């Protein structure tokens, strides 16, 4: 059953001429060490907004920093506030803020690019080398009661959408970006390898862009069951069936038009390539834990395969909210676990250790709106 969507959130009694200088945050001090601390709030610029964070979804990257202290070249060298899938309510606005006011409900795009480099000017700001992305060292995230943030990366939430569903717009944006780069079109076939939150939301993205046949593989029954609810035409338990054989049988040996590899498992990344038809396109979304993954270059040249690496997203937030609003009942299936800020460590452990029973874990930095 769907939850009641729009939940009232109390606005703190904060005056524009007397803004707080600190806020309570969940801080990663070192691997497996989370503490609640008073952390500094930056001074607001004229185009900044003070936001009370209502809900934050936990991402796999948060867990990687929590249990290993690094992802690739990004290393936690000093205390870091995690969290980047978030929504909240506007508390105060800078003098030059035009489109937002106190009390507005917003989804927060967690990356702020420089706006000046060639990538930003061409619209591919996700590739900005000076990107300030939440919870990517050394940039703090938003597992905090309050944050100061630029107005340009705050997007109004539809009135009938919950704060929890609004947090899904961040992982959904990754799926939308992948679908756009691949050029998924009406009548096409799509294989999604990996049924975590991004893979499950990729079902919604693929269907929105017109895919006719969607196949999803994973090793966890909960994820496969949820994939069916989200609209997958066929699900494959990779522990019991070989996705390559199943897809070959389903496509008369030709393969699928598009693949979205969202598991980050090196073996799955290699196998997904061979499910493509000649001239097919593949997007690698999941990040493997190894430094490099060998790929079958002879297969790629013989099949004229097009391969895309997916790095975050650009210009997707308004579209993502529009699509999610039309499918809130489906999106609700991903929300499984809910914690207050004081239990951030428990929330990270839940995400890290319980992939069989948990999909998207939500943390409430202020009052908890929903309970198990």
From TrEMBL:
Q: Which GO terms describe its molecular function?
A: oxidoreductase activity, acting on the CH-OH group of donors, NAD or NADP as acceptor; zinc ion binding
Q: Which PROSITE patterns match?
A: ADH_ZINC
Say which domain of life the source belongs to.
Answer: Bacteria
**Pfam families in the record:** ADH_N, ADH_zinc_N
What UniProt keywords are attached to this protein's entry? Metal-binding, Oxidoreductase, Zinc
Q: Which cofactor does it need?
A: Zn(2+)
Q: Where would I find the Enoyl reductase (ER) domain in this sequence?
A: 33-363
The UniProt similarity line reads: Belongs to the zinc-containing alcohol dehydrogenase family.
Designated name of the protein: L-iditol 2-dehydrogenase
């Amino acid at each position: 059953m769907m939850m009641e969507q729009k939940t009232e959130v109390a606005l703190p009694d904060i005056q524009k001429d007397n803004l707080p200088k600190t806020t309570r945050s969940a801080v990663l001090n070192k691997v497996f060490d989370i503490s609640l601390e008073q952390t500094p709030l930056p001074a607001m610029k004229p185009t900044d907004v003070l936001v009370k964070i209502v809900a934050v979804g936990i991402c796999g990257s948060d867990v990687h920093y929590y249990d290993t202290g690094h992802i690739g070249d990004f290393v936690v060298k000093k205390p870091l506030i995690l969290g980047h899938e978030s929504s909240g309510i506007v508390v105060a606005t800078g003098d030059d803020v035009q489109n937002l006011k106190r009390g507005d409900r917003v989804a927060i795009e967690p990356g702020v690019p420089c706006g000046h480099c060639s990538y930003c000017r061409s619209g591919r700001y996700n590739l900005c080398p000076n990107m300030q992305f939440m919870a990517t060292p050394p940039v703090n995230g938003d597992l905090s009661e309050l944050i100061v943030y630029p107005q340009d990366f705050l997007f109004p939430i539809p009135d009938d959408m919950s704060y929890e569903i609004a947090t899904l717009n961040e992982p959904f944006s990754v799926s939308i970006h992948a679908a756009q780069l691949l050029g998924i079109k009406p009548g096409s076939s799509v294989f999604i390898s990996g049924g975590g939150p991004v893979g499950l939301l990729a079902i919604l993205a693929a269907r929105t862009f017109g895919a006719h046949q969607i196949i999803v593989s994973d090793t966890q029954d909960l994820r496969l069951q949820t994939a069916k609810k989200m609209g997958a035409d066929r699900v494959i338990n990779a522990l019991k069936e070989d996705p390559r054989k199943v897809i070959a049988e389903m496509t008369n040996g030709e393969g699928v038009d598009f693949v979205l590899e969202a598991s980050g498992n090196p073996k799955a990344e290699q196998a997904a390539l061979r499910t493509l038809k000649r001239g097919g396109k593949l997007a690698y979304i999941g990040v493997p834990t190894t430094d490099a993954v060998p790929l079958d270059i002879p297969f790629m040249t013989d099949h004229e395969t097009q391969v895309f690496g997916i790095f975050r997203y650009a210009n997707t937030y308004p579209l993502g909210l529009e699509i999610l609003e039309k499918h809130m009942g489906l999106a609700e299936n991903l929300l499984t676990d809910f914690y207050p800020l004081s239990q951030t460590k428990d929330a990270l452990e839940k995400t890290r250790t319980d992939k069989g029973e948990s999909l998207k874990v939500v943390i409430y930095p202020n009052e908890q709106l929903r309970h198990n």
